[in-house]
């Protein structure tokens, strides 16, 4: 079916007001939940075909996320959708003021391939919860997961409400010509700019969930053992193909050697290997080639081996990397961890400040002053102190970037708000109307107004 006619049908359907009823939203959230559960095997098989992502990783980083999101909205929908009463200023007495969360209408979600289910379905779930229609365009790069989502959604939901549109650049370009009431995009900063430009043509509001080089800092005041374990996990999860993975590491010089040893220990302990369930493949040959070219043989501290046939790149640590090295120029998005050292903590923060604002940042320390400087001096989308990646699992925290790493955010109530318009309504009584604001004006009226305002 032509995508334009599907969007048209969604417009007509939205106008019937059906998607606004809370019972309608809940019914479809429940339905999606039961479909995810009954199709778990299909979802596992598809993602394994795409990049050998294990059942364990798929459940913990994708399926459980989606189910948690649905449960969150099922539980909180009534409170989220309820008009919020706010106070009314003096000049509007006697009156009352409320903010209504108004569904936006027809929304578009464009997903990325690296967590294909979570990054496609979580925004769609937020769109449903907020009372919208939605077209989802998952990433064609993870082709099997795209097909699995299209099968689940298109065979079970009316297309005038929810629809998965399969395709790549051409199809996305076609979609971007159409007028949507919200575009939610997850992907690279480069494509984010294309989306933003296209959205501007229709003045469509956007959420752009983009990428960047997310630093991890380890100071001499850190619990080094814990820091090493959590950095290795966050970096090599999904073979480094995680938007919030620590991209590079800044370690205080006095603990550098000791810390690198610990990283090595945990990489070995976690048993990453091409045929193990602990490690995913690199998504495609293009990324495999791009990543292997970034390995500077002279700087390998650990790893550096790869196997083209299996698109496997060993977890690799590159030591004493220079800011001018190729690996420090762009987001890595793979299992290569460049390490550089610092003598002075503030100079490490300054170095981060000189780059674009990252999607995430991580600090490992038990020193209060260092923590304060980290949160106050550098700008980043979100992050952790003494952990990596886990901030995005807390629904009470908004998830999104800043500057070139993104615009807007979602998760929990923030996802609901991203797909709603905050509509302000002031209701006045129809009695007791003073004449003060009405012409004809006078000095006396002005002096009263000065007192009132
Ligand atoms: P991408 O930008 O190449 O693709 C994302 C989507 O855009 C896909 O659906 C694709 O079909 C579409 N697309 C690609 N080129 C296009 C074009 N020229 N015109 C229109 N549409 C186009 O990103 P990716 O490779 O799927 O994902 C990797 C990037 O995404 C990394 O930079 C990563 O950091 C970022 N990312 C961010 C988040 C986040 O939540 N902030 C999550 C995952 C990935």
UniProtKB/TrEMBL annotation:
GO CC, alphabetical: cytoplasm
Domain of life: Bacteria
Gene Ontology terms for molecular function: aldehyde dehydrogenase (NAD+) activity
Domain Aldehyde dehydrogenase: 19-425
Name of a matching Pfam family: Aldedh
Classification via InterPro entries: Ald_DH/histidinol_DH, Ald_DH_C, Ald_DH_CS_CYS, Ald_DH_CS_GLU, Ald_DH_N, Aldehyde_DH_dom, Aldehyde_DH_NAD(P)
Alphabetical keyword list: NAD, Oxidoreductase
Biological process according to GO: aldehyde metabolic process
Active site: 209, 243
Family of the protein in this entry: Belongs to the aldehyde dehydrogenase family.
Name of this chain's protein: Aldehyde dehydrogenase
Source species: Chryseobacterium ureilyticum
């Amino acid at each position: 079916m032509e995508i334009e006619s599907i969007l048209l049908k969604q417009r007509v359907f939205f106008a019937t007001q059906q998607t606004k009823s809370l019972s309608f939203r809940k019914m479809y959230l429940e339905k999606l939940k039961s479909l995810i559960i009954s199709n778990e095997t299909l979802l596992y098989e598809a993602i394994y075909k795409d990049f050998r992502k294990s059942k364990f990783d798929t459940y913990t980083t994708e399926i459980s996320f989606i189910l948690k999101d649905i449960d969150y909205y099922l539980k909180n929908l009534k409170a989220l959708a309820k008009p919020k009463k706010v106070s009314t200023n003096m000049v509007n007495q006697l009156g009352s003021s409320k903010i209504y969360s108004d569904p936006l209408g027809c929304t578009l979600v464009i997903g990325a391939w690296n967590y294909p289910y979570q990054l496609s379905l979580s925004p769609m779930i937020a769109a449903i919860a907020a009372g919208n229609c939605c077209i989802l365009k998952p990433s064609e790069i993870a082709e099997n997961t795209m097909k699995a989502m299209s099968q689940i959604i298109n065979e079970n939901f009316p297309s005038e409400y929810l629809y998965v549109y399969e395709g790549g650049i051409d199809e996305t370009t076609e979609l971007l010509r159409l007028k949507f009431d919200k575009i939610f995009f997850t992907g690279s900063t480069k494509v984010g700019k294309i989306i933003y430009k296209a959205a501007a043509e229709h003045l469509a509001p956007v959420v752009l969930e983009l990428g960047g080089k997310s630093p991890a800092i380890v100071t001499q005041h850190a619990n080094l053992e814990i820091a090493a374990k959590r950095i290795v996990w966050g970096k090599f999860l999904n073979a480094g193909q995680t938007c919030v993975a620590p991209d590079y590491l800044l370690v205080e010089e006095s603990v550098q050697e000791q810390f690198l040893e610990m990283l090595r220990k945990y990489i070995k302990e976690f048993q990453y290997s091409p045929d193990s369930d602990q490690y995913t493949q690199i998504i495609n040959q293009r990324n495999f080639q791009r990543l292997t070219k970034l390995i500077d043989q002279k700087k390998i501290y650990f790893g550096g081996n790869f196997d083209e046939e299996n698109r496997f790149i060993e977890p690799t640590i590159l030591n004493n990397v220079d800011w001018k090295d190729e690996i420090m120029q762009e987001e890595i998005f793979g299992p290569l961890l460049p390490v550089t050292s610092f003598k002075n903590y503030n100079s490490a923060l300054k170095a981060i400040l000189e780059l674009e604002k990252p999607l995430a940042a991580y600090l490992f320390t038990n020193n209060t002053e260092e923590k304060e400087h980290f949160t106050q001096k550098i700008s980043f989308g979100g992050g952790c102190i003494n952990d990596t990646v886990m901030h995005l699992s807390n629904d009470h925290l908004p998830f999104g970037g800043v500057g070139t790493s993104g615009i807007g955010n979602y998760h929990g109530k923030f996802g609901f708000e991203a797909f709603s318009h905050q509509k302000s309504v002031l209701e006045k009584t129809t009695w007791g109307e003073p004449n003060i604001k009405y012409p004809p004006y006078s000095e006396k009226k002005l002096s009263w107004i000065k007192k009132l305002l």
